Amino acid sequence: MESNGREKMSKNSEDRASFEKTHRHEESIHKYHPPQEGPNNGSPNGAEDEESSMEVTIDEPNDRSPDKQSEVYSTPDANYQRMNILQSSSVIERSRWKDPSVSPLPRAKRGLDHCITAPVRTGRNLFFENQEGAISRSMTEKRGSTRIDLKFDRLSEREKKKLIMDLLKIQNDGTVEVDLTNSEPVTSEFLELHSVEGVPPSSDYITRSTPDLNKSIPKLNVAVLVVGTRGDVQPFLALARRLQEYGHRVRLATHANFRGFVKSAGVDFYPLGGDPRVLAGYMARNKGLIPSAPGEISVQRKQIKAIIESLLPACTEPDAENGEPFRAQAIIANPPAYGHAHVAEYLDVPLHIFFTMPWTPTYAFPHPFAHVPQSAGYWLSYILVDLLIWWGIRGYINDFRKKKLKLPPIAYFSTYHGSISHLPTGYMWSPHVVSKPEDWGPLVDVVGYCFLNLGSKYQPPEEFVRWIQKGSKPIYIGFGSMPLEDSKKTTNIILEALRNTGQRGIIDQGWGDLGNNTEIPDDVFLLVDIPHDWLFPLCTAVVHHGGAGTTAAGLKAGCPTTIVPFFGDQFFWGERIHQRGLGPAPIPISQLSVEALSEAIRFMLQPEVKSQATEIAALIKNEDGVGSAVNAFHRHLPPEVPFHVSPSEKDDDPNPLQRIFTQIGRLCCLPCGS
């Protein structure tokens, strides 16, 4: 009796302590994150008024008048006095909580086909050792995750933006320069946030991986959402085809320009909004995602709006040609498909990000769209670029959430604003070219290049076959989907550099119309749309814009490479190529000259450069990037893939026959014994 009494008192004490801990935490939340009531503070009604003008420039918080647009092109007043709150007491207050009311709801198993057995090479525990942080949460709001309280969070939105803008400068060409010396208090806050946050907590869709060598995966309807040029689409098409081999039904949704390309590979197609030619032109003019002049705002606005509005139909609408129903049970997307996470949240399905350039914060290298003088700012550059992009698209995203998805809007400053750090992410490049940074956690995979291998069935023109056979291996020069301001001038530079170095050359016209209205000598051949995996092994070296796919094809063929970057990750790949001794330093398109290109060609012809290229080619040929990508997708799927149930279905009890088929489906999805 006495023992039982002590146990009961101990239990009551534990319960009381737990209650007091929770109560104290709730008080701290209300102190630093007060309930959102009234207009302009994050409530649906207030946000409705705030977002109504739908600007996509870097708008001021709670101030969206058109006459404020010019403010985004100037640095805020340097005499602004920062609040002392950033310079007092401890930098970070940290608390964990777990709401027992937040738990996964039972989900109806609908649309499941029989299982496939997918190889899983590793068994990772994606939870914290302390399971306190690993609880169910919304993808967007991340309920129940570790809450980090920065003094920065207590400032007004306008004050926050002022401090952040002091960290960076938007150049005239649209790129972002990050300088840590400009704003030490806010810099230390962001950097200390990284030091305490550790491995990103697992999302509602990321759970403990099985240690078994085989993991049963249901056959899924997978929507692959890709925004970009053909080079961006191609690796996803390779991934889609391999997923089909595992029994999944895959719909690749991208721009209408690539309908024939996708369907010729035997993959279902659905059109996304946006025009890749317009997007490429915008990126080439602005060198990034930030409008460099007021005239570019309307271009950005139309393209982003069209992309976002097309995402939900791409995941839910029947096939446009045969009317076959489709509803995504999992989503794969690249980051420029803005809105992917919101559609996944609405449908309650897993989301896996794949990309050809780094988008996860790291100290190893800066964001591809940022210039960072200090290496300590590399990690921070990803956070700041994410914020700038979010400020530009938040109006469309929140309008999309409220009107189309019936979801609450997201605040101007939010722990979630489009970052992919909490999502499983696969990077489609060879780890032998850029290894996985040590500070990328278990949610991130570097899977290898994903080749489509179009050259196996390609039939070249007879005229080209005769030309290639009658001389030495040529140098390939082409800029793919990149637009050129003066194609005739660029063509003349190429021809003169080939003459100076005594080399034969292949000019790929691309979207820039190289070679048009220009007399082409006999030792130069003009080509249009030829598979790189067929052509590059016939070349002695390659010169191109530095797109990830073109770079991969050149390296696999063992070609020394010169990159002439136009924007974005092309500079990143140019630097990586040069660091590995596979080619000269990149030549930005604005600096392309006869002298610079001639010197680059001579550099590539050196025996030691060719030897380096041959070594890396052998390593890449032994990789199976597509297989690794499929393995990563399967490995990060939760044990029970959630399926969205419409409101009309939630209230309907399944009939007895439906219950039987549901039970059969569950039995089929148990781990296979062989």
UniProtKB/TrEMBL annotation:
<dbReference type="InterPro" id="IPR002213">
    <property type="entry name" value="UDP_glucos_trans"/>
</dbReference>
<dbReference type="GO" id="GO:0005975">
    <property type="term" value="P:carbohydrate metabolic process"/>
</dbReference>
<dbReference type="InterPro" id="IPR010610">
    <property type="entry name" value="EryCIII-like_C"/>
</dbReference>
<dbReference type="InterPro" id="IPR004276">
    <property type="entry name" value="GlycoTrans_28_N"/>
</dbReference>
<dbReference type="GO" id="GO:0016906">
    <property type="term" value="F:sterol 3-beta-glucosyltransferase activity"/>
</dbReference>
<keyword id="KW-0808">Transferase</keyword>
<dbReference type="Pfam" id="PF03033">
    <property type="entry name" value="Glyco_transf_28"/>
</dbReference>
<dbReference type="InterPro" id="IPR050426">
    <property type="entry name" value="Glycosyltransferase_28"/>
</dbReference>
<feature type="compositionally biased region" description="Basic and acidic residues">
    <location>
        <begin position="1"/>
        <end position="30"/>
    </location>
</feature>
<feature type="domain" description="Glycosyltransferase family 28 N-terminal">
    <location>
        <begin position="222"/>
        <end position="365"/>
    </location>
</feature>
<dbReference type="Pfam" id="PF06722">
    <property type="entry name" value="EryCIII-like_C"/>
</dbReference>
<protein>
    <submittedName>
        <fullName>Sterol 3-beta-glucosyltransferase UGT80B1 isoform X1</fullName>
    </submittedName>
</protein>
<feature type="compositionally biased region" description="Basic and acidic residues">
    <location>
        <begin position="61"/>
        <end position="70"/>
    </location>
</feature>
<feature type="region of interest" description="Disordered">
    <location>
        <begin position="1"/>
        <end position="79"/>
    </location>
</feature>
<feature type="domain" description="Erythromycin biosynthesis protein CIII-like C-terminal">
    <location>
        <begin position="517"/>
        <end position="615"/>
    </location>
</feature>
<feature type="compositionally biased region" description="Acidic residues">
    <location>
        <begin position="47"/>
        <end position="60"/>
    </location>
</feature>
